[in-house]
Amino acid sequence: MININENYLKLENSYLFSTIAKKIEEYQENNPKTEIIKLGIGDVTLPIVPTVVNAVKTAMDEMGDVDKLMGYGPEQGYDFLRERIAKIDYEKKGINVTLDEIFVSDGSKSDTGNIGDIFSIANTVAITDPIYPVYLDTNIMAGRKIVYMPSTSENNFVPDLPEEKADMIYLCSPNNPTGEVLKKEELKVWVDYALENKSIILFDGAYESFITEDNIPHSIYEIERAKEVAIEFRSFSKTAGFTGLRCAYTVVPKELKAYTKSGKKVSINSLWNRRQTTKFNGVPYIIQKGAEAIYSDKGQKEIKDNISYYLENARIIREGLANAGYTVFGGINAPYIWLKVPDNLGSWEFFDKLLHEKGIVGTPGSGFGPNGEGYFRLTAFASRKNTIEAINRIKS
Question: What is the pTM of this model?
Fold first, then answer.
């Protein structure tokens, strides 16, 4: 008799965004003439920038040349991309990251979930609430004990330290879904905690390129000694519109150690490298050439123009909702706007109201955790026209 991993039975029957997609499909079947404006999932709408498109085309042409054909590449990523990451994302900001600490992957969603492979299921995991579902769901799948750290308007979306010792701590700044950020002094509290308790911080910095304000760290490694306690995840999905190309990277410092049951120190960098070489075949060459192109002067300008476009959308949503009487958060250093649901409606009630009365799709806050109930997330990734139209519909 084959047995299942019964931890999967503890999950919700459907992943949050799958549920939303099903509701949209049902509504559209019954209302085929209604133009739905989607401000729900964080999928980009601007096209891939020309510099990336040209680089991918060139790389594809190379694949058709027997003398330039690239087969299996290094599971950790090609040096040509890792060199650009190390220099531009870190060295120019005064942070030393070596090539063998960088692991190119197919997405931060994958990495933030897969990182648990190298840690014991006996570890206690601290997760902010609300938060991106993959952190929670993958640890439920593994069977780990989870403690929640409320992150609400009452504490200015800065979670308090857990009351019981946490071994693994997920932090996301700029935050998905709230759009809020952790300042340097706030992030230092967590680094100090991890140092004292021999914990690991899993820091999701997928939206760092949207940061506009000073004193907001773009990397956790801006905090002294953070390389001793933190793994950092970065993504090209929102930075350069790679949602359909799939490319990201994770930094695992060599200073970072974990422990065996007997107390022996083990290199986390080595363990992650072993995991990747066993279970991952690497990101395609043509995709990594596209990612490399965003680090050129022209590529940097093009992607920054796109980011500015989305940030302007965020401003339109944030200010439009505020003028309409809504209580709103985020949208300054992130492409997400987190709003308080009006009239004491539930998050899913508000979802249905927006969809059925206004043809607008957002994401119910309760889908991000218990403390997300009563809130709602909108994204800035629609077209400018649809963004303005959505706000006008809500105002009416």
Answer: 0.95
